[in-house]
Amino acid sequence: MNTVHRFILALLLVSTLACRAQPPAATEAGDAGTVMQFELTSLDGGALGPVDFAEELVLVEFWATWCGPCHLQAEILAKLYPELKKKGVEFLAVSLGEPEAVVRDFVAKRPFAYPVLIDPNDRIASEYGIFVLPTVVLLDRSGTIMYQREGISSADRLISAVETILEGRRPAGRT
Length: 175
Prior knowledge:
Elements: H1 3-18, E1 40-42, E2 47-48, E3 57-63, H2 68-86, E4 89-96, H3 100-109, E5 116-119, H4 123-128, E6 135-139, E7 145-150, H5 155-166
Parallel strand pairs: 3-4, 4-5
Antiparallel strand pairs: 1-2, 1-5, 3-6, 6-7
């Protein structure tokens, strides 16, 4: 393996490890069946949360500007958003642990098509056991966690989970 390949491999490893906020707790508060209720300040200045989309499924993406895999997840979600929005799914991006100015600068360069919420003190992460970035959570119309995945979720996996929830079933496991 040449030096460039070793460097790329090391960079990927460090990037993946850097996105782990802290070790997972023995029990995870974000288990399927938990109702996720929160309200945070959006970049638009208002307060927003899953309860504001009670008639829709809500996909919550937990991310940070410094997290390389989060950028890949955001690209997947950007492509999925128009299709899933037509099926009654709203997206929320929750930035964890960063000041609003940092998030605002990042989003100015890489805009989101859906609301970006700010959680500079990791309150929501602590409350719901979000310890790895990115993490994607799907909530049903009552705000109940139906699907939660740490790391990158593929478009196919997310579409399948949404379709399963729309059929009135819970996707298998925490996948």
